[in-house]
C-alpha cells in the first residue's frame, strides 16, 4: 500500500506551491515587498523543521557530532520530506556544509530551462527554513542559503554559527 | 542503530505530519498578516480553492472513479475515496436534506488539527477552512457548484467536526460548443 503515502505528498506539494503564490499575491495587492515574502516562507519552514525534528528524533540514539547530525539531515530527514536522499554532502570541516540535491522535489514540477530560473528562490525559502529549524532544535545555530544553477538541481549551503 | 530501526514504520506517519505542521505554520503566518479572523478565513478558503482545482486532476488520475450520477454518489466518492486517499480518514455522511441536495460530512478526527489549540483571541477563526475551499474548487472542475462550510468544529469544543455541503447548480456553460 504505497499509494496513500504518495497522495499525502501531492497534498504537501500543492500546499507548498499555494503558500508561495498566495503570499506573493497578497504582497502584490498592497502590504510588504518581495523580500518580506522570502522571510515569511523561511520562517514557516523554520517552525515546521523544529516540529518535525522533535518528533523524528524522539526514539533515536544521541548524535556523535556535528557531521553525524548533518548526515542525519541528508538521509533520514530528507527522505521523509522529499522522498530521496541528498545526493552529495561536502564540508570544509570549518562549519560550512554544502548539500546538493540533483533532483529537488519542489523544483521538479517546473520547466527545466533557463526561462524560470529567476523564480526558483521563492520555492527554496521554505526548505532553507526547514533545515535551519531542524538544526536549531538539535542545538546548532546556522544560516542556510540556497542556489540553483540548472533546474531541478540545487545546493543548500549551511553555515554553522558558533555559539 | 535504533535510528535505523524505527524508520520504516514512522515514515508514513511522518509525511502526514509534514502536511499538518506546514498547514499550521501557514495559518499562524496568516493570523500575523491579517488583522481579523474573517480575512484569514477568506484567505484560507481562496488558497483551498486554488489547491482544489489542481487536486481534482490528481484525484481523477489516481482514483479511476467515473462520472457520478447523482449527488449521493458524489458524497460517497468524496468521503470514501477522496478523504481516505489524501487525509487517511473516512468521514461519515449524514443529515441529508429531504430534497437530497445537502448533506454533512462528520469527521471523527481531523488530521489538520492534530497539534492545535485555538487561543481565546481567535474565537472566530475557522482553522480548517482550507478544506472547504478544496472541496469547492475540486467540484467546480467537474461542473458542480457547491456551498461548503463548517458547522461544527472540535477546536471550538464541539464533539465532532461537521462540514455541510450544499449542491447549488450544475455548471453547464463552460463546455465547448458541440461537445456533450
From TrEMBL, chain A:
Subcellular location: Endoplasmic reticulum; Golgi apparatus, cis-Golgi network
Keyword Endoplasmic reticulum listed: yes
Biological processes annotated in GO: endoplasmic reticulum to Golgi vesicle-mediated transport; nervous system development
Transmembrane segments: none
Gene3D superfamilies cross-referenced by the UniProt entry: Trafficking protein particle complex subunit 3
Gene Ontology cellular component annotations, sorted alphabetically: cis-Golgi network; endoplasmic reticulum; trans-Golgi network; TRAPP complex
Classification via Pfam families: TRAPP
The entry's keywords: Endoplasmic reticulum, Golgi apparatus, Neurogenesis
PANTHER family: TRAFFICKING PROTEIN PARTICLE COMPLEX SUBUNIT 6B
Known function: Component of a transport protein particle (TRAPP) complex that may function in specific stages of inter-organelle traffic. Specifically involved in the early development of neural circuitry, likely by controlling the frequency and amplitude of intracellular calcium transients implicated in the regulation of neuron differentiation and survival.
Protein name, as recorded: Trafficking protein particle complex subunit 6B
UniProtKB/TrEMBL annotation, chain B:
Record InterPro entries: Bet3, NO_sig/Golgi_transp_ligand-bd, TRAPP_component
Chief localization: endoplasmic reticulum
Matching Pfam families: TRAPP
Any single GO CC term annotated in Swiss-Prot or TrEMBL for this entry: Golgi apparatus
Keywords, in A-Z order: Endoplasmic reticulum, ER-Golgi transport, Golgi apparatus, Lipoprotein, Palmitate, Transport
Keyword Lipoprotein assigned: yes
GO terms classed as biological process: Golgi vesicle transport
Localization per Swiss-Prot or TrEMBL: Endoplasmic reticulum; Golgi apparatus, cis-Golgi network
Quaternary structure, from the entry: Homodimer.
Stated family: Belongs to the TRAPP small subunits family. BET3 subfamily.
Role, per record: May play a role in vesicular transport from endoplasmic reticulum to Golgi.
The protein, known as: Trafficking protein particle complex subunit
Amino acid at each position: 500500500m504505497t499509494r496513500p503515502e504518495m497522495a499525502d505528498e501531492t497534498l504537501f506539494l500543492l500546499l507548498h506551491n499555494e503558500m508561495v503564490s498566495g503570499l506573493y499575491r497578497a504582497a502584490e495587492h498592497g502590504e510588504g515587498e518581495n523580500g518580506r515574502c522570502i522571510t515569511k516562507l523561511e520562517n514557516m519552514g523554520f517552525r515546521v523543521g523544529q516540529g518535525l525534528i522533535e518528533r523524528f528524533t524522539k526514539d533515536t540514539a544521541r548524535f556523535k557530532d556535528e557531521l553525524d547530525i548533518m548526515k542525519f539531515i541528508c538521509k533520514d530527514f530528507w527522505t521523509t520530506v522529499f522522498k530521496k536522499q541528498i545526493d552529495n554532502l561536502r564540508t570544509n570541516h570549518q562549519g560550512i556544509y554544502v548539500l546538493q540535491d540533483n533532483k529537488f522535489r519542489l523544483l521538479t514540477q517546473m520547466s527545466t530551462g533557463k526561462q524560470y530560473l529567476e523564480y526558483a528562490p521563492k520555492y527554496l525559502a521554505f526548505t532553507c527554513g526547514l533545515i535551519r529549524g531542524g538544526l536549531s532544535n538539535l542545538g546548532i545555530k546556522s544560516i542556510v542559503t540556497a542556489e540553483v544553477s540548472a533546474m531541478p538541481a540545487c545546493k543548500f549551503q549551511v553555515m554553522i554559527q558558533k555559539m | 542503530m535504533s535510528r535505523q530501526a524505527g524508520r520504516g514504520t514512522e515514515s508514513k506517519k511522518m509525511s502526514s505530519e509534514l502536511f499538518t505542521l506546514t498547514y499550521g505554520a501557514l495559518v499562524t503566518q496568516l493570523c500575523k498578516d491579517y488583522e481579523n479572523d474573517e480575512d484569514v478565513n477568506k484567505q484560507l478558503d481562496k488558497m483551498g480553492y486554488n489547491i482544489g482545482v489542481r487536486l481534482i486532476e490528481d484525484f481523477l488520475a489516481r482514483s479511476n472513479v467515473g462520472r457520478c450520477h447523482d449527488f449521493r454518489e458524489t458524497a460517497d466518492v468524496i468521503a470514501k475515496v477522496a478523504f481516505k486517499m489524501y487525509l487517511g480518514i473516512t468521514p461519515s455522511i449524514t443529515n441529508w436534506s429531504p430534497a437530497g441536495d445537502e448533506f454533512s460530512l462528520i469527521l471523527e478526527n481531523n488530521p489538520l488539527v492534530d497539534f492545535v489549540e485555538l487561543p481565546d483571541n481567535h474565537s472566530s477563526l475557522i482553522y480548517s477552512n482550507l478544506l472547504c475551499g478544496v472541496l469547492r474548487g475540486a467540484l467546480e472542475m467537474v461542473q458542480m457548484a457547491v456551498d461548503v462550510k463548517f458547522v461544527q468544529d472540535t477546536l471550538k469544543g464541539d464533539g465532532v467536526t461537521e462540514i455541510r455541503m450544499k449542491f447549488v447548480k450544475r455548471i453547464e456553460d463552460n463546455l465547448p460548443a458541440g461537445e456533450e
